[in-house]
Amino acid sequence: MANPPCRSICLAALFCISAGDAAAAAWQVEAAAGVTLLWIGTLATACCVLRRRCRAAESRLRETTAALHAEQRARGQAELALSELHDGMALLVQQQAAVRDDERGRIARDLHDDLGQTLLTARIDVSLLQVATKGLHTAANDKLAHLGSSLDAALRALRTAINNLRPLALGEGLRGALQRQVREFARLSGITCEYAAEDSAIEAAQREPLLDVVLYRIVQEALSNAARHSHASLVRVSLRCVDGSVALDIQDNGIGMNADPATYGSGLSGLRQRISAAGGQFMVESGAREGTLLAVALPLAHESVAR
């Protein structure tokens, strides 16, 4: 058994060690608390910075959105103004075309009634003089025969000029004019021609200024091209109403054309100009030995007619 002094020394030593461990533990707790507070402060600072950046980003987003909306409004106003300008120009073109067609009709009537009648009267008088001088004066009779031939040529040229100003066939209406055009094409070319036209398309075209003339000229030029170049045995012509426009399709089973539009002849160039002036669109589909399709769409001002 240890003596009392030794026991006291051991107890004192144990007490010191216990006090040191407690101090170390307390220091560790304080250090951990300090680190925690440091992390909390760092996170709080990061949150503040992030919040400021979010607010700045939201502000820039609002500014960008406002600028985008302003640009969209400006674009909408510009598109509206462009559409109104286009409609105004289309109306002006239609009015000019109507005035031009009226003037052409008046000139055609004047040529037919005045110059045409005068030439016809002169031709009749020359024919009577030919009969009267036949066998009496050979030289005079020959001169009269030559004069009669010249008057016949003048009458043919006059009829051509009048027909170019305003197709005489349209005097019987678009339906009859197209039917006659198709019949004459089949008779002169020997090519079978199938023709189909909706009543609504005919009625709508006749209510539009100059649309009947445009359709007649397109069919005339397209059939002429088919007779000269296609080597076809069949041509189909169809006229119908589609989505507020008159659709004209002319298709043949001929040898086709070159796929390059730059090689198309003056006939298609004239058709393109005529269709563009009427505010329409056209498409040509063709391939070697696959025939040719000419598809034309001409807009109607009275859309309710086409529905």
From TrEMBL:
<dbReference type="InterPro" id="IPR036890">
    <property type="entry name" value="HATPase_C_sf"/>
</dbReference>
<feature type="domain" description="Histidine kinase">
    <location>
        <begin position="215"/>
        <end position="302"/>
    </location>
</feature>
<dbReference type="Pfam" id="PF07730">
    <property type="entry name" value="HisKA_3"/>
</dbReference>
<dbReference type="InterPro" id="IPR050482">
    <property type="entry name" value="Sensor_HK_TwoCompSys"/>
</dbReference>
<dbReference type="Pfam" id="PF02518">
    <property type="entry name" value="HATPase_c"/>
</dbReference>
<keyword id="KW-0808">Transferase</keyword>
<keyword id="KW-0411">Iron-sulfur</keyword>
<keyword id="KW-0902">Two-component regulatory system</keyword>
<feature type="signal peptide">
    <location>
        <begin position="1"/>
        <end position="24"/>
    </location>
</feature>
<keyword id="KW-0004">4Fe-4S</keyword>
<keyword id="KW-0418">Kinase</keyword>
<keyword id="KW-0732">Signal</keyword>
<dbReference type="InterPro" id="IPR004358">
    <property type="entry name" value="Sig_transdc_His_kin-like_C"/>
</dbReference>
<comment type="function">
    <text>Member of the two-component regulatory system NreB/NreC involved in the control of dissimilatory nitrate/nitrite reduction in response to oxygen. NreB functions as a direct oxygen sensor histidine kinase which is autophosphorylated, in the absence of oxygen, probably at the conserved histidine residue, and transfers its phosphate group probably to a conserved aspartate residue of NreC. NreB/NreC activates the expression of the nitrate (narGHJI) and nitrite (nir) reductase operons, as well as the putative nitrate transporter gene narT.</text>
</comment>
<keyword id="KW-0479">Metal-binding</keyword>
<keyword id="KW-0963">Cytoplasm</keyword>
<dbReference type="InterPro" id="IPR011712">
    <property type="entry name" value="Sig_transdc_His_kin_sub3_dim/P"/>
</dbReference>
<dbReference type="InterPro" id="IPR005467">
    <property type="entry name" value="His_kinase_dom"/>
</dbReference>
<keyword id="KW-0408">Iron</keyword>
<dbReference type="GO" id="GO:0016301">
    <property type="term" value="F:kinase activity"/>
</dbReference>
<protein>
    <recommendedName>
        <fullName>Oxygen sensor histidine kinase NreB</fullName>
        <ecNumber>2.7.13.3</ecNumber>
    </recommendedName>
</protein>
<dbReference type="InterPro" id="IPR003594">
    <property type="entry name" value="HATPase_dom"/>
</dbReference>
